[in-house]
Amino acid sequence: MTRDESARFTLLAFHAHPDDEALLTGGTLAQAAARGHRVVLVTATCGERGLAGAVDGAGERLARLRRAELEASAAALGCARVVSLDYADSGLRPDPADADAFVHVDVEAAAARLAELLREEDVDVLTIYDPNGGYGHPDHVQVHRVGSRAAELAGTPVVLEATVSAPLFVGSLRLLRFLGSALGRSAPLGVDRVFSPRSRITHRIRVRNQLDAKRAALAAHASQRRAEGQVRALERILRLPRPIFALAFGTEWYAEQGRPAGERFTDVFATVPSRRDPRPGRQALRHPPRARSAATSVPPTTSTAARRRG
């Protein structure tokens, strides 16, 4: 497919928590921004239930810190706008009675909020997670559900599921489990339900030219690099020598929804129609990027607002 190199597109990356954007999609976001495309970063939660160091606090205090870390990461990647939907972090093993947790919110209502952003930004490509939510975190699975439905509501032309080749990841988990590492037991759905089979992958994006930006984005999440009495996985990643880091994280993979596996694309915008059918309030031809503030939030749901008041 021939691509007009002068065309400018909008990419919206939807993630569950701050720091998720850097590891799976950081290079892709930085590459798109460096080429002049508009990049919007949206998180469902602020990650207040994430493991962090004692100095980082917990609850709302940790949420404020992680919002700031997210903005620093987004700046390193060149994102034009950052939005938090401000749902409650579900944690790795959600409480079934916690109705405010993102994993338990109504998919249709959450999708409507995200669809509003997709329409507002005239998004060409939405990134979410695969049906397994990558390694199975409940909030990641919910991102897949909400993002998929939002794209339907907004008519977003391309939905890419950020993923990796499942056999590679499963092999790593089994090795870590054999070595006694807790990381080997970090897939809530089990090792048979992680990421995607190699046959589903449609996009293989080489991002070695953006490794500095990707590392800077990862490093911005300082709270996720520390915990009492252990060395966190993120800290171990950042300690890798550059050649090893490039080998492990210099490629990012996606499976496009509705596209049969076959040809492997090397550009996230490769399958965006060059002309799109105009819908009410839209333009048929691509338009230049619009000015936006760097950090934004959308109105919280009633349940989230009530949780904050409580």
Amount of beta strand: 15-25%
Radius of gyration: 19 Å
From the N-terminal CA to the C-terminal CA, the straight-line distance is: 54 Å
* Protein structure class: alpha/beta
Mean of pLDDT: 82
- The outline comes out as globular
Residues in helix, %: 25-40%
Number of helices: 10
What series of H and E elements makes up the topology?
EHEHEHEHHEHEHEEHHEEH
Low-confidence stretches: 170-191, 277-295, 299-310
Strand order of the largest sheet: 6-9-5-4-1-2-3-10
Query: What is the strand tally?
Result: 10
What composes the largest sheet?
A: 8 strands, mixed
Provide an overview of this structure:
Residues 170-191, 277-295 and 299-310 have low confidence and may be disordered. Strand 1 (10-15), helix 1 (20-34) and strand 2 form a beta-alpha-beta unit. The chain contains ten helices and ten strands. Strands 6-9-5-4-1-2-3-10 form an eight-stranded mixed sheet, sandwiched between helices. Helix 1 (20-34) packs antiparallel against helix 7. Helices cover 37% and strands 16% of the residues. By secondary structure, it is α/β, with parallel strands linked by helices. The protein is globular and about 50 Å long.
Characterize this entry briefly.
The chain has 310 residues and is α/β, with parallel strands linked by helices. The protein has 10 helices and 10 strands.
